[in-house]
Design a protein that fits this description.
The protein is α+β, with helices and mostly antiparallel strands and 282 residues long. Helices cover 33% and strands 29% of the residues.
Length: 282
């Protein structure tokens, strides 16, 4: 197990001028990185069927968890909205829990309201954020913390344990993500990074990083409850940002819950857009 050097990103007052001035382009990159990330997971998952339909991408696994099934990147016909929704839901009905992923480019623009009127429930809203990566300076890790690139089966199992616990995933839903991630960590080393944080030798934090659409995406950042409040989430995110910078990319993006917003703001991220997740589960 080798420690990933934890570095910080030097920032000035104008660090995100380009991000703010190029909001539309960066917002598009946030969406495209997310959709490419989902597609890569599905491509390496034996249970997943990820299919391009007329106005959306369909993710279908049959796993009884909404994160594992859904309608991605919907661009529905306003004049045929009821028919489109009925067609999109046909493979799921009420038997398979699923999510509608409503991003900035979803159509029609009021799709969230339309889904609510059709009986879907907003499961979560997340913030699309981005930052420019400038000069990198070494800095100390929190005491007792080692950040490791998970590649071997044992290392991936440590990552998987933290991931499943933090995000409260049952075994089959956890495997939907962890099995492709194990392959990606070996086959896509220039585009994908799987990090585990160890505190005094115990795995306590996880994160993934994915290069696509000209930016580095940050996903699945989490820390076990007993290890929170020590700066570990900040540290593992910063380590991944350093890796993104070292791949030659100067913009990092992520989706943040309201709970993580202040941490990412301290890391220099700006809020650019919003995503809304709707489910067929009451």
């Amino acid at each position: 197990m080798s420690n990933v050097i934890y570095t910080s990103i030097k920032r000035g007052e104008d660090v995100n001028v380009k991000i703010i001035n190029d909001r539309s382009s960066i917002t598009e990159s946030i969406e495209n990185n997310l959709f490419d990330h989902i597609a890569s997971i599905c491509m390496l998952n034996r249970k997943a069927k990820y299919t391009r339909k007329s106005h959306w991408m369909e993710l279908l696994t049959g796993i009884q968890h909404p994160l594992c099934n859904g309608i991605i990147d919907p661009k529905l016909d306003k004049d045929r909205i009821d028919e489109n929704i009925k067609e999109a839901m046909y493979p799921f009905q009420k038997l398979i829990p699923m999510l509608w992923w409503i991003g900035p480019s979803a159509r029609p623009a009021d799709l969230s309201s339309i889904l609510t009127d059709h009986g879907f429930v907003e499961a979560e809203s997340v913030l699309g954020m981005a930052t420019e990566l400038t000069a990198i300076n070494d800095t100390a890790t929190p005491k007792g913390l080692l950040i490791n690139n998970a590649v071997t089966p044992e290392e991936v199992n440590d990552w998987k344990m933290v991931f499943a616990t933090v995000f409260e995933l049952p075994p089959d839903a956890c495997a939907f993500f962890s099995e492709p991630f194990a392959l990606m960590s070996k086959q896509m080393k220039d585009r994908f990074l799987l990090l585990t944080g160890y505190l005094d030798g115990k795995p306590v934090a996880c994160a993934t990083f994915f290069i696509s659409a000209g930016v580095g995406g940050i996903y699945n950042v989490g820390t076990l409850r007993e290890a929170r409040g020590k700066g570990i989430g900040y540290a593992i995110t910063s380590a991944g940002m350093s890796w993104i910078k070292n791949t030659g990319h100067n913009v990092a993006i992520l989706l943040s819950s309201s709970m993580g917003f202040n941490v990412y703001k301290r890391l220099g991220f700006s809020h650019l857009c919003d995503f809304y997740l709707f489910t067929n589960v009451d």
